[in-house]
Amino acid sequence: MGKQTTQTETVTSLEHLETVVDSDFHLSEQQDDFLSYLPSPFHDMLFHESRDIPMGYLKDFYPTAGLLTPVATGNVEMNKVRSQADIIEGKDLLNVDRAIVTPTLNLYLGGVHHDDLAAALAHAYNEWVLDEIYNPDEGIYGPVVVAPQKPQEAAAEIEDRAGEDGIVSVFIPSGGVHPPLGNEQYFPIYAAAENAGLPVQLHSASGTQMLSFPLQFHGSNRYLSNHAPTHAMVHMTHLTDMITRGVPVRFPDLDIVFQEAGLGWVPYMTRRLDNEYSEKRSDAPMLEKMPSEYVDDQFYFTSQPVEGAKDPDYIGPIVGLMGPDNLMFSSDYPHLDFDHSDYLFSALRSNFESSDVANVYGQTALEIYDF
Q1: What are the tens digits of pLDDT across the range 281-301?
Q2: Distance between CA atoms of 285 and 201, rounded to whole angstroms?
Q3: Helix axis angle, 223-244 to 291-298, nearest 10°
């Protein structure tokens, strides 16, 4: 991992950075946006039945945990982001040059119980965003979304979409996914992504924790007890499973991006993995080096929700331990707890050199997403 640098040079404003990339800027898509793109037989089965139903008929196919806290309350009122104009407005608000646009409703795709429908929903979403949303001329990019329930179809979707304008990655909705993402059944997805030269993004959703995670979490029935730990818990499980099953060894040219879990869990988990691996190397026989070295070489993390951003004494050591070269700025806009682009910046600039800050705010993303 990179090391915290001495304060010999600082940038004082985002305006001083050549390119600012938001690595997790959300759409707030609704099923009506992409329903018409559903392939047969689901288009014929569902399209006509869904009209004029509030929230849409397909809402029933994205499982929820039944949380009562509305998503439109919090630090700010959630803006809708369902068009290029909405994205451009958000980019201007955040002062970012390029946005990696990720879904919201389809964060729940991994929990859809009908595997074929899940693949069809992913296909329809990709059709819609390529027709209506992605536009490199406006700095709007995004992933090809795949359903992990159908790895072969997901691989085919990647192969079909890899050359499309605006496609810069592969997106796996990781919440609710079972088994964890180190299982060999997902290898066709990783092989297709690696062959296409696209990084894989993993993004959970807080409500998906209770869909398939250990039984004791089914009783976690409050917003805070669910939302605060879920993203990091899901990512820790997938990261551990992917490393111990040798995903980075099998796919050495594959980059993997974990989104929306904050910072502190990364140095904790990598060091815990190193400690455990040192005691029981036979449990991960494919590994040729320490787990933290694979994390350093092939795994990246987006910043939001930054915990402790108002405490530079916390941010400096944490980012130093996880490595500024492995961190990419993200806003999570327009979700209720999004981070403005200057939120992390003010903490970073007092601890790191300008080159490290530039890497977090865009240079690493330019390299990983190759745009």
Answers
A1: 999 999 999 999 999 999 999
A2: 26
A3: 100
Helix (H, G, I), strand (E, B) or coil at 65: coil
How many helices (H) and strands (E) the chain has is answered by 15, 8
Is residue 246 a contact partner of residue 190, using CB atoms and an 8 Å limit? no
Neighbours of 252 (CB within 10 A): 10
CA–CA gap between residue 280 and residue 277 (Å, rounded):
5
Using CA atoms in the order 310, 260, 100, 111, what is the torsion angle rounded to 10 degrees?
-160
Say whether 340 sits in a helix, a strand or coil.
coil
Give the model confidence (pLDDT) of 23-65 as tens digits: 999 999 988 899 889 888 887 777 655 555 544 445 567 776 6
E strand or H helix that includes residue 142: strand 140-145
In the DSSP assignment, the letter for residue 77 is P
Distance CA 18, CA 138 (A): 16
The position carrying tokens 């060999």 is: 184
CB atoms within 10 A of CB 281: 11
C-alpha 327, offset from chain centre: 13
Whole-number Å distance between alpha carbons of 34 and 309: 37
